[in-house]
Amino acid sequence: MRHSLLAVLLLVAAATLTSSCGYALAGRGSFLPQTIKVIGIPDFVNDTNFYQVEQVLTQKVRSEFIGRGKYKVLPQATGVDAVLKGEITSIAISPSVFNAAQQATRYVITVTGKIEFRDLIADKVLWENPRLVFREDYDVATGTATVTDPATFFGQDTNALERVSTNFARSVVSAILEAF
Fold first, then answer.
1. Distance from C-alpha of 21 to C-alpha of 120, rounded to nearest angstrom
2. Which end of the chain is more exposed for a tag (fewer CB within 10 A), N or C?
3. Looking at residue 57, which CATH number applies to its domain?
4. In a domain, 75, yes or no
C-alpha cells in the first residue's frame, strides 16, 4: 500500500511538473515558423493626403520587429523569408472631449490600413488584416483651434505622429508574432 501511494504521488508530481497552463508573457513568444529568419518590410503605401506618414509608420514597424531580437529586418520584399506589406488608406481626427467653453481638448486619431504578412518559403499568408483600424486618444494644448485635419493636428502636436506610429507598430507586430 505504501508503495502504491508513493507511486501515485510521484505520478502526480511528474504530471504537475510536465504540464503547462498555456500562458506565456506577452511580447516574448512567436508563433512564426522556425524557417523565418529574415523579414522584408518595404515602405508602406500611403493613400492619404498626409505627407510621409508611410515612412514613419514603416520605420516604427521595422524597429519593433528588430526590438524583438529574433529577426533580421530588411527594407525590401526580395531575398527574404517573409514579407510584411502595408497600405495606409486613411487618417481621420475627431474631437472626443470638450471643455466648458465647448472647445475640443481631446481628439481621437484613427489610422486605417491594410496589412499582410506572407511566408515566402511556404508561399502562404500567415497574418493579414485588410481593414486594420487603429485608434488613439490624445490631448491637445489649450487654446488651439478646432483640429480635424491630420496635417494641422500633427503640426500642432509634433509628438502625436510619433506616439501613434509607435503604438500602431506595437499592435501590428504583436498581432503577427502572438498569432492574434
1. 33
2. N
3. 3.30.160.150
4. yes
CA nearest neighbour of 42 among 3, 76, 72 = 76
The domain tally of the chain equals: 1
What Cα–Cα distance (Å) separates residue 106 from each residue in 147, 158, 162? 10, 15, 17
CA angle, 132 then 121 then 112, to 5°: 10
Residue 49 lies in a domain: yes
- Distance between CA atoms of residues 139 and 107, nearest Å: 6
pLDDT digits (tens, 9 = 90+) for 57-114: 999 999 999 998 789 999 999 999 999 999 999 998 889 899 898 888 888 888 999 9
What single DSSP character describes residue 97?
E
Q: What is the pLDDT of residue 93?
A: 85
Which residue range is the domain that position 146 belongs to? 29-177
Beta bridge partners of 133: 112
pLDDT in tens, 24-53: 444 445 688 999 999 999 999 999 988 888
Does residue 13 sit within a domain? no
Does 7 reside within a domain? no
